[in-house]
Amino acid sequence: MIPGSHCLIVSNFSLFPWRVLNYGSQCPIVTYGTLKKKGLYSVKSGYRVACNAENITSQASSSGGSGIFLWNKVWGLRVPPKVCVFIWRLLRGILPTKIALAKKVGLLDVDCVFCHNYAESDMHLFKDCGALNCFWHASALGLLPCPHTGHTLLDWFSEVSQLLPTNHLELLCMCLWVIWTERNNIIWKNSFFNPSHMASWAFKSLENYQKYHPAIRKNSQRPLSHWETPPSGRLKINVDGSFICEGEHGGIGVIIRDANGQCIASLSRSLTHVSSAIQAEVEACRAGLFIAINQGWDNIILESDCASIVTALSSVGDDFSQIGRIVGDCKEFMGSLRSISIRHIYREANGVAHRLAHIASFSNSDKFWLHETPSIIEDVLFEDLCNCIRGSGFMSSSVQNF
Ligand SMILES: [Zn+2]
């Protein structure tokens, strides 16, 4: 592809289900809802898109648990990374078992190295081999792989993963990995099959790994945040967007308050032809900034509960995503203000803007109030005033000055 040429369309291509719209001197520009935030292509974002597409397919065609939920569970297990990779290969059916090699390269000896009675398929080796019963019994799991309704190892594992607690599932993965490693040792190193050694090997390996990789404790629930008044002399703009998939419409809400928490201006506007929630959010930012510029207010704090938008507006450089043009407008507005800070807040601290956006999304209203408080937000305004923290002009790390 020649840099500078345009409009390479690769839609409907199964591995890369996105559209390349442009090809600049640096990298392709792609459109996809969950792609890179700035619309730029990277290997990581491409891999994620391919995985998402594949998960949609597999969830639609598989009878249970083989979608993204299962993979998240596998990759989240506290087992050595090599074991996670092994499980992934196993469940994807890409392990070079003897049956797989017989199909691909015509391998003649397909006997199971443990029982020598059956062909070595993945189902037989990891689940049905009678010679491994003593190993399964000796393992700390104390279980035998049980009959199941599915026809593939993926179905079996999906079923088992829903039944076993996480610590048992981790040990099961170690056991499966030990079976494969022992099988390779028998084939390539002429070692002897020793079920009790395999059982203690699986248990000890897991124990050692978990000893040096303790579980990460999840943070306790964060305390609820509250709206904070701006410092004296500054105005605070809270914005929010609402999006309704059906009908592709939405609404935006903007509330501007002074250091006393008094409503200076507010806006509730419905939107048509909205393609995403993030578009509604950035439209709200643009509307809030436009009001400030239009009214000649230039000492502003802008707050949004959409972290992606705060990041987009705080970053330098062009934004090639679907909302890039609106982000560009916002940056232009921000550049024309004497003082502007933007920060992310949690949703519960953005109740007034949320109310205005929510109402707008269910009506065709386009209402702007200046120096008056609309009755539809009186209660949430009062609630904010009762719970608010008095701003002292601090700058949190998330604040970006322009
Ligand atoms: Zn066997």
TrEMBL record:
Mind telling me which Pfam families this protein's record contains? RVT_3 (PF13456), zf-RVT (PF13966)
What SUPFAM superfamilies does the annotation carry? Ribonuclease H-like (SSF53098)
Gene3D superfamilies attached to this UniProt entry: Ribonuclease H-like superfamily/Ribonuclease H (3.30.420.10)
Which GO terms of the molecular function aspect are on file? nucleic acid binding; RNA-DNA hybrid ribonuclease activity
Q: What residues does the RNase H type-1 domain cover?
A: 238-358
Q: Which residues form the Reverse transcriptase zinc-binding domain?
A: 41-136
**Which InterPro entries does this UniProt record tie to the protein?**
RNase_H-like_dom_plant, RNase_H-like_EbsB-rel, RNaseH-like_sf, RNaseH_domain, RNaseH_sf, RVT-Znf
Q: What is the protein named?
A: Uncharacterized protein
**UniProt source species:** Rubus argutus
